[in-house]
Design goal:
Blueprint (H helix, E strand, L loop, with lengths): L4 H22 L7 H13 L3 H20 L9 H16 L11 H25 L5 H12 L4 H22 L11 H29 L3
């Protein structure tokens, strides 16, 4: 793993785009992606800012990921916590300025969702290209895949199912049944499409980053 200024810049940009993605989804009335629904239930139930909530959830996820992979503790354990704090801070700031599409109409809500999927795919490809330590959720999915001797994609799918179950349980705990536990069309649409969009963009984005990061 080699750190450079240019790679770090694109890594931070990728994390920022993940925050933009979550913000856009938050401001629709189509529900949330599975893990965002977990965070939304905690956000509404505990009244914690995302800059506090995201690192807290990340701590749990990365701990489970380390246990699943039987990885030894190192200082890199804390890196996903810094990532989550930064993404949470981006979300908190953007929620103050980005217009909400709740109740505006289906077309505008779907436009926000489409933008979120594309932006997330670009951000994830930036992060994957840099080969820095993964965000907590992706590290967890990797841990699930390795423990079950399966692919990362299947680990990601299992992680999404776990998140849906957690969203329902937390929703009952905080009495969010009327909000359908913040689960909606996005939970299915985002979950089914994001992997394909990430793969579809990967060659183009990796080629762009190859040219950009290896310029003299």
């Amino acid at each position: 793993m080699i750190f450079t200024k240019r790679k770090t810049l694109f890594f931070v940009l990728g994390l920022t785009l993940l925050g933009v993605c979550v913000t856009l989804i938050q401001l629709t009335d189509l529900g949330m992606s599975a893990w965002d629904a977990v965070n939304r239930n905690l956000y509404e139930g505990l009244h914690l800012p995302y800059s506090v909530l995201n690192p807290g959830v990340a701590l749990i996820l990365i701990s489970v990921a380390y246990l699943l992979q039987k990885k030894r503790f190192s200082l890199w354990f804390f890196f996903p916590l810094l990532i989550s704090f930064y993404v949470g801070l981006v979300i908190d700031l953007l929620l103050l300025v980005v217009p909400s599409m709740v109740g505006v109409g289906l077309v505008w809500n779907l436009l926000y969702l489409a933008m979120a999927i594309v932006i997330c795919a670009i951000g994830l490809n930036f992060i994957l290209y840099c080969e820095y330590p993964l965000p907590a959720l992706d590290e967890l999915c990797n841990g699930i895949a390795k423990s079950l001797h399966t692919t990362f994609g299947k680990g990601k799918l299992i992680g999404e199912v776990i998140a849906i179950v957690l969203s329902v349980l937390l929703g009952f705990l905080f009495n969010f049944q009327d909000q359908w536990f913040f689960i909606g069309p996005t939970t299915l649409i985002f979950g089914l499409l994001i992997g394909f969009v990430v793969d579809g963009f990967q060659k183009t984005i990796f080629g762009f980053l190859d040219r950009t990061l290896h310029e003299d």
